[in-house]
Structure formats: structure tokens, C-alpha cells
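Database export, one record per block. Field names are fixed; values are copied verbatim from the stored entry.
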Amino acid sequence: MRILNFWWILYYTKVQQDDLIGVIFNKVIENNWAEHLEKMYRFWQTLLLGDHTYYGSPFAPHAKLPLRQEHFDRWLQLFTTILDDHF
């Protein structure tokens, strides 16, 4: 689990600093990244490890964001780059 926490910290730091998607997420999350990251850890722990600790609905909050295909493409690029670099 420690390696996943390390990976998530790296990944979400990249998201926060990204010129394209960081602006959007930082505007919504503001200074609540620690709280948001705890929720994200639970989400990914549920999805990837089958340890059901997340009980939310991730689509609804994201559907309200001004996201287009280019934003998802960047999110995915950051995601795969961090995975490739560390695994």
C-alpha cells in the first residue's frame, strides 16, 4: 500500500501543477487537497485493490466541471507517465 500512496502523491502533485487541468481542479478544490486526496485514495483502493473503502459517486462532481476531451487526454497522459516512470 505504501508504494501506491507514494504514486498517488506524485500523480496528484503533477495534476495540481499542470497548466491545463491543474487550473480547473485547483479552482474547485482550493486548499482542500488533503481532504480530497484521502477520498481519492479510498476510490483507487476500492477500484484497484478490491478493498471497498469508497462509497461515493465520482461522476456527479466531475460532470459539473468544464472538462473537454483535451483535459481527459492530459489526465490520462499524466496517469500513464507516472505509472511508466515508477513501475
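Remark 1: Residues 20 and 61 are 19 Å apart (CA to CA).
Remark 2: The mean pLDDT is 91.
End of record.
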